[in-house]
Amino acid sequence: MKKLLTVLLGICMILSLAACSQKQEEPAAPETPETPETVEEFDPSAKSEGVMTYAEYAAAAEGDEVLIEGFVQAAQSYWNGAKLYLADPDGAYFVYCDGKGEDINISEDDFAKVVLSTDYAEGWTGMATGAKVQVKGVKSQWSGEIEISEAEVTVLDSESWYAEAEDVTALLGTDALADKMNRYVAFKGMTVEASKDANGNDVAFLYNWDGSGEPGSDLYFNVSIDGNVYNFVVESYLCYDGSVVYDAVEALNIGDVVDMTGFLYWYNGPNPHITSIEVK
Q: Which parts of the chain sit beneath pLDDT 50?
């Protein structure tokens, strides 16, 4: 009997040791994965501390110092003063960097960061990279155009952003059009009307407003809708001779129906700077 008990106790000990060994060999529970860092979503409306919203800028008086941020949509030639067309989701700005060469308030290196090309000889088109910039200057007005003068421009580290063209055709001839000043806009279904050259001939466009220019000068042309005629321009420092839009305007015929996009500049009234034109 004692012998049997001894055997049973031995078996129990062996089973207990086996169970302990099996328990010790069980794999450790997997570690809880770390929560990935939240990626902050890009917000083109966000402003740095102390920077005006578009509404605050719009409410500022002429002559006030302003500090704004926007995304470069287009730019006129660096050597003509590096005028910048900026936008954010709430509005648009025209920035006039006074001076030329060493006197300009944006460096040539920074200017190269905001435009797609600096090759003026090959049909320069001032389309931009959408880079975000901060601008300090003075809110000014010149012949009705609201702009920022004495501008100091700093290129910021940010994602790019572009505004979509807003169709403002229906606002032509109304006071509400001025609220869209400097924005990237579209005009649709307009008809090319005759202009008079220096000899009194009907032509589809003029080199300079009075026809006194030559290829490479600004292009002026008349377009109409609902019986009203408006004067638009291809600004040569923005879209130079050889660019797609410059060539397209030179090929216009009186009576062509066109869709256009550009920036709603102002000179004693709407003076859109056209950057694309399509004959329908």
A: 1-15, 17-23, 100-103
DSSP 199: T
Alpha helices, DSSP H, located in the chain: 2-25, 54-59, 108-114, 244-250
> What is the per-residue DSSP string for 205-217?
-EESTTS---BTB
Q: Which residues partner with 218 through β-bridges?
A: none
Q: CB under 8 Å to 261, separation ≥6 — which residues?
A: 165, 184, 185, 186, 187, 274, 275, 276
Domain boundary among 155, 181, 215: 155
Q: Which position has the token pair 């320069």?
A: 124
Q: Domain containing 135 — which CATH number? A: 2.40.50.200
Q: Write down how long the chain is.
A: 280
Q: 202-208: list long-range contacts, CB under 8 Å, 24+ apart.
A: 202/254, 203/254, 204/252, 204/253, 204/254, 204/256, 205/249, 205/250, 205/252
CA distance 273 to 212: 19
Residue 176's φ and ψ, nearest 5 degrees, are -65, -20
Can you tell me the distance from the alpha carbon of 175 to that of 223, in angstroms, rounded to the nearest whole number?
19
Please state, in angstroms and rounded to a whole number, the distance separating the CA atoms of residues 246 and 249. Answer: 5
In a domain, 79, yes or no: yes
Q: What is the per-residue pLDDT for 119?
A: 65
